[in-house]
Design brief:
seven-stranded mixed beta sheet, Aspartate Aminotransferase, domain 1, 16% strand, four-stranded mixed beta sheet, 2 domains, alpha/beta
Length: 444
């Protein structure tokens, strides 16, 4: 299909997510290009005109090992000939059992029970519901409120918006949303003169402690994005905050939910971001990269104690949540192939060197730029903020990046890089060169 025809038909029939569709229309004041992608290979996407574009954000943070990875593709094809889907209510199948066991093992069996869904927001809602229902089963029905961090993002369904502190997503749907409470983020960018990231984490923990001291009796859980708050502009913070949070949740009888939907699966340098604080949450949410970017899959891992609280002859005390495609065999097989790659190719060790090369290329181009602030990195995530950026900066940068053959999608005035784990040295240079060109075009 020709590029022009594909674009015209898409604009006539497809409503794109998180998009003001007017920006895609001809004649828009600040246009947002629509990219007609027809194939992918490794870190590269190819559009309908034959142009190659480096996917610098892993296609919204999901594609860990590049596009069309032969091992993941082969695993899905083999599963197609065996079992494509079966309901998980009253049935089970080998891929979901093996995946659950392997994930439990990665937590040292501290989180030994997996509940499945299809997307990150659903995983958030499962964790929230599971926490509140746990307390109900314990006879503490008043514990039904939730705390999240300022700027936190946990999904855009009505339930997940209760713990998402992004006004753009919340305000239009405010009458539908259960009221939650946000507390100070440990975002290291908030450091006062002379403060370290650990000092900011300590201040944020003090704010959390004050809230819990006053409200723990009605609080079911605290939900956090460990180490990096994605939609807050890749806000990075010291791991000590997670240790403070774990200690406070234990003291006040509140669950800790780790939303590792974006930052799990090795993105921060360890398979689970929580590992860097040497703590484990009561609930751990995974999605995005767990299937290698191939098929929709999400899950919540939790403890024996939570699981046991739902065991009863009374159905009403069981966990009442379901999805038609829960634990889909094809998606689980893709996830198993993804875990195989982590194991067989020692990906976390390889990423140490890869992240160093990314950081060196990043620093060479952006460390001393007069308009940039808070250049930062953790694992395979790098970011900077642009001072005095124009209101349409993100759209203009996206368009300029495409001209330089890189796919980058800033969050407001924050430019970030989250490339697939297969990016090589020449591709790193192309990514950073393209970003530098785009930045100068927009700021000019």
């Amino acid at each position: 299909m020709a590029a022009a025809d594909l674009l015209q038909r898409s604009l006539g029939a497809v409503w794109h997510p998180c998009t003001q569709m007017r920006h895609h229309q001809p004649g828009a004041t600040s246009p947002l290009p629509l990219v007609p992608v027809v194939r992918g290979q490794g870190v590269w996407l190819e559009d309908a005109s034959g142009h190659r574009i480096l996917d610098g954000i892993s296609s919204w943070w999901v594609n860990l090992f590049g596009h069309c990875h032969p091992q993941i593709g082969a695993a899905i094809k083999a599963q197609l000939d065996t079992l494509e889907h079966v309901m998980l209510a009253g049935c089970t199948h080998p891929p979901v059992v093996e995946l659950s066991e392997r994930l439990a093992a990665l937590t040292g069996h501290r989180l030994g029970h997996a509940f499945y869904a299809s997307d990150g927001a659903s995983a958030t809602e499962i964790a929230l519901k599971m926490s509140a229902h746990y307390w109900r089963n314990q006879g503490q029905t008043e514990k039904c409120r939730f705390i999240s961090l300022a700027g936190g993002y946990h999904g855009e369904t009505v339930g997940a918006l209760a713990v998402t502190d992004v006004p753009l997503f919340r305000e239009a749907y405010a009458p539908l949303i259960l009221a939650g409470t946000s507390v100070m983020s440990p975002d290291a960018r908030q450091a006062c003169a002379g403060e370290s990231p650990a000092d900011v984490a300590r201040r944020a923990a003090q704010a959390l402690e004050a809230h819990l001291d006053a409200h723990h009796r009605e609080t079911a859980a605290l939900i956090v994005e460990p180490l990096v708050q994605g939609a807050a502009g890749m806000a990075m913070y010291d791991p000590s905050y997670l240790r403070h949070a774990r200690r406070l949740c234990d003291r006040y009888g509140v669950h800790l939910i780790a939303d590792e939907i974006a930052m799990g699966c090795g993105r921060t340098g360890t398979f689970f971001a929580s590992e860097q604080a040497e703590i484990w949450p009561d609930f751990l949410c995974l999605s995005k990269g767990i299937s290698g970017g191939y098929l929709p899959l999400s899950l919540v891992l939790t403890t024996d104690g939570v699981f046991d609280a739902f065991l009863d002859d009374d159905t009403a005390r069981g966990f009442l949540h379901s999805h038609s495609y829960t634990g889909n065999p094809l998606a689980c097989r893709a996830a198993l192939a993804t875990l195989d790659l982590f194991r067989d190719e020692d990906v976390l060790t390889a990423n140490i060197d890869r992240s160093r090369r990314l950081r060196a290329a990043f620093d060479a181009r952006f460390a001393d730029h007069p308009r940039l602030r808070h250049q930062r990195a953790r694992g395979m995530v790098l970011a900077f903020d642009v001072a005095d950026a124009p209101p349409d900066f993100s759209r203009r940068f996206f368009a300029a990046g495409l001209e330089a053959r890189v796919l980058l999608r800033p969050i407001g005035a924050t430019v970030y890089f989250m490339p697939p784990y297969v990016i090589d040295g020449a591709e790193i240079d192309h990514l950073m060169d393209g970003a530098a060109v785009a930045l100068e075009r927009v700021l000019a």
